[in-house]
Amino acid sequence: MATGLEFGAFAIRSRALARQASQAALSLALLAAPLAQAKPGVPGAGDLPPDAVGKNLDGDTILLSQYPGRAVVLTFWATWCGYCLKELPVLEKIQNLIGRERLEVIAVNTEARDVFRRAKRTLKDYKLQMIYDPDKQAQQAFGVQGIPHMLIIGRDGRIVRLYRGYSESELDAIATDIDAALVAPLAKEASNSQP
């Protein structure tokens, strides 16, 4: 027969185990949430991404196919995103170090044309490709539900990795993925078009 003291200890342990089980279930649910929210057809690692990524201020559509044989960093950003504004000069430096003939950085602004125009004027010294997504089609095609949102695409045209809501703690992983994109084998179409 259990004493009151033993029963009390058992009840405390049972509540602790129940709380741990509840926390584990919540953790699993939180981990699964991004997977559950991912839309069917949204590209991920190993996939070929949609070609159209936005427009420049002249209204020209920018296509990933314009950069055959190059690795591409495609990042979606906004002027109100502090992390995004810290990321742009870093990506600019990476592109300058590696060379635009090997790496193209495309920064897609998610805001209205007039906001993008002012931002582009402010960031006029940047050499990275700055465009915007006026009709939100690129954001929808790439599954952008928040920013920052970055895709690293290899020379073979396939997505190496997708980053959503990342922070500075992932810079080493991003650098590793950019390196992987740079050494990816050329896509057949790109290699056939080169002499």
Features:
195 residues, alpha/beta, two-stranded antiparallel ribbon, 6 helices, globular, disordered N terminus
What is the topological layout?
Blueprint: H1 4-37, E1 52-55, E2 61-63, E3 71-77, H2 82-98, E4 103-109, H3 113-122, E5 129-132, H4 137-141, E6 149-153, E7 159-164, H5 171-183, H6 188-193
Parallel strand pairs: 3-4, 4-5
Antiparallel strand pairs: 1-2, 3-6, 6-7
Structural class estimated from helices and strands: alpha/beta
Summarize the main sheet.
Answer: 5 strands, mixed
Neighbour order of strands in the largest sheet: 5-4-3-6-7
How far from one another are the termini? 88 Å
**SSE ordering:** HEEEHEHEHEEHH
- Poorly predicted segments: 2-38, 190-195
Number of strands: 7
Can you give the helix content as a percent range? 40-55%
Instruction: Identify the overall geometry.
Output: globular
Q: What does the average pLDDT come to?
A: 80
> What is the percentage of strand-forming residues?
15-25%
Radius of gyration: 22 Å
